[in-house]
Write a structure and sequence with these properties.
The protein has about 140 residues and is an alpha/beta fold. It has a single domain, classed as YqgF/RNase H-like domain (Nucleotidyltransferase, domain 5), CATH 3.30.420. About 50% of the residues lie in helices and about 25% in strands. Strands 3-2-1-4-5 form a five-stranded mixed sheet. Helix 1 packs across helix 2 and helix 3 packs across helix 5. The longest helix has 18 residues. It is globular, with a radius of gyration of 14 Å. The protein starts with a strand and ends with a helix.
Length: about 140
C-alpha cells in the first residue's frame, strides 16, 4: 500500500500534501516554489518515488456555479503531464473555497505576510487531500 498525494497547482507555488501510510489522514505537506512546469513536474516525480506515492489527487478550480474556466483547463493540462511523468492516473477534487479556507485557518493561527504566502498552498493541498481521503473512506 502506498501514499496518496494531494496537489494544489499554482503558477508560482504548488502545494503538496502526502497521506500517512494508512491513507487515512494527511501526514506531511510541502510547497514547490517554481514558475516552470518542468521543475514542478520533476519535483512531483521525485516526491512520488521518494515517498512511495501510488495515487494522486489534484484540486480542480471550478467557478462557484460549477462550471470550468481557463484555470481549470490549465490544471487539466498539467494533470496530463503529471500522469505522463509519474505513470499514475490523476483524480480531480473540486477545490472551490479551499484557498479561502486555508487563509482562514492560517489567520486563526496568526500566520501573516510572507509566512502565510509560503504556507497557504500546502494548507490548500492538505484540504484537497483530506476531502478526497474522507470521500474514499466512505
Amino acid at each position: 500500500m502506498g501514499r496518496v498525494m494531494g496537489i494544489d497547482y499554482g503558477d508560482a507555488r504548488t502545494g503538496i500534501a502526502l497521506s500517512d501510510l494508512l491513507c487515512s489522514l494527511v501526514g506531511s505537506t510541502l510547497v514547490i516554489h517554481s514558475k516552470g512546469r518542468e521543475k514542478t513536474l520533476s519535483e512531483i516525480s521525485r516526491i512520488v518515488k521518494e515517498w512511495g506515492v501510488t495515487e494522486i489527487v489534484m484540486g480542480l478550480p471550478k467557478n462557484m456555479d460549477g462550471t470550468e474556466g481557463p484555470r481549470a483547463q490549465l490544471c487539466r493540462e498539467f494533470a496530463l503531464l503529471v500522469e505522463q511523468t509519474t505513470g499514475l492516473a490523476v483524480a480531480f477534487w473540486d477545490e472551490r473555497r479551499t484557498t479561502v479556507e486555508a487563509h482562514r485557518i492560517l489567520s486563526d493561527h496568526n500566520y501573516h505576510g510572507k509566512k502565510r504566502k509560503n504556507t497557504v498552498d500546502a494548507v490548500a493541498a492538505s484540504l484537497i487531500l483530506e476531502g478526497y481521503l474522507a470521500f474514499r473512506g466512505r
